[in-house]
Amino acid sequence: FIETPYRKIVDGKLSDEVVYLSAMEEAKHYVAQANVTFTKDGELENDLVVARHAGDNGLTPKENVDLMDVSPKQMVSVAASLIPFLENDDANRALMGSNMQRQAVPLLRAEAPFVGTGMEAIVARDSGAAIVAKRTGIVDQVDATRIVIRATAESDASKSGVDIYNLMKFQRSNQSTCINQRPLVVVGDHINAGDIIADGPSTELGDLALGRNVLVAFMPWNGYNFEDSILLSEKIAMQDVFTSIHIEEYEVMARDTKLGPEEITRDIPNVSEEALKNLDEAGIVHIGAEVAPGDILVGKITPKGESPMTPEEKLLRAIFGEKASDVRDTSLRVPPGDAGTVVEVRVFNRHGIDKDERAMAIEREEIERLAKDRDDEQSILDRNVYARLKEMLFGKAATAGPKGYVVGTKLNDQMFEAQPRSKWWQFAVDDDKVMTEMEALHAQYEESRRLLEQRFIDKVDKLQRGDELPPGVMKMVKVFIATKRKIQPGDKMAGRHGNKGVVSRIVPVEDMPYLEDGTSVDIVLNPLGVPSRMNVGQILETHLG
Length: 545
Prior knowledge:
It is a single chain. The protein is of the alpha+beta class. Helices cover 22% and strands 28% of the residues. It has 5 domains: 4-74, DNA-directed RNA polymerase, beta subunit, external 1 domain (Rna Polymerase Beta Subunit, Chain: C, domain 4, Roll); 76-105 and 213-243 and 486-545, Beta Barrel (Dna-directed Rna Polymerase Ii 140kd Polypeptide, Chain: B, Domain 6); 106-208, CATH 2.40.50.100; 244-353 and 466-485, CATH 2.40.50.150; 364-464, no CATH class. It contains 9 helices and 34 strands.
């Protein structure tokens, strides 16, 4: 869409060459439409051709035409290319449809459209929401949080033969919606470079899935769909069809004040034990806690004194570890109107300040994850290298070998199994070419191991260094709370044809209009929303669906 392809026309004759041009470069050329007619030998049939030049359309002599469109679809944008029956929609409505697709909230369960345009898979892949395999290989391990792929086509020794893809689980986006990736592959699957191996938010099996497929009736219903209102069936709300997850972020900072440092602690004055039930010993809420408005998320106390402390007092306090005599409760609480489940806690400490128990636990967990990645990569590397070594030596008579090997006997499976793998390098054969390959393989193996260990050490080192915090801040805690939101009256809903409306009422299933076979419809729209707006595409889409 940034650059688009054109076929070249030379002296009125179509060539097989395709050039890619940006919008600025295209303005200099005379571009014929994709539906121009040609004779059998590839010449333009008409002497005058409809072509565009510098943004204007007009009839142009065929000798001047130097490019033609590849397809009539290429003039529309990414968002417009996702609208089915675009040619039956008024331009204003297509514009609204394009803009409203960008505002779609990722649903709990995504569903690809029954009626699509074929661009869904391309848009989903290029959007970066789904995970795309970098190299061809075989899936070695899969769980909800990561995918390990053994690269089979990698011949470059300096590159790792393993790709580890860490999936994002319930992370917050900038719009407070939920980013969650789910694996699509199973162990043993053969993957090609460019295949989609995990779905992201609003994608299903690698297709873009912005909404849901629901059964629609165009009819008035007691005035509840007057002026673009939308009537919904209770079934839609009950079955979580249009339910989404939203994640809010709350943060609290402990600063060094003139009266002494603020402290994040569980020890808060005049607060009942009941109010502290969700906090751990460090005073931070634990993951999985259900919280309601007014609940404490992070306990914090601030010293309040009549006068600032003198340096001597500060020193005595530091030596004897006395708490400030009078402190006030400045804990982080859930604001009114918010509630949900704690899904993540992050603790940031200033460089050089001792970490609390919670920060240490988070750090240990992260180091364990890094170590697991390193161990998995190491085991796949070992398997690959020793398989290649065994292939080189198998069936050959060795002139030297580890202890217990009889020189001159041909190497077979039992002999390899009798020796630990690390001793296989001691085998030597009469073939110079094999020995050179063995030395190269050994050097490459040691280098790969060294790089792997170095990467792990660097990551752990980065983790254990303190965090860069604003001046005066000793410690910062971020708490993420997830909430499930069902659809309710007042919510805006929209189709792809600029047909938008606000939910006016959710009615019981038995009051909804039904089809001949008794199936009740999911949603009732006003038929008067179609003729004056001239977006007939929605009617054609409902016919196909």
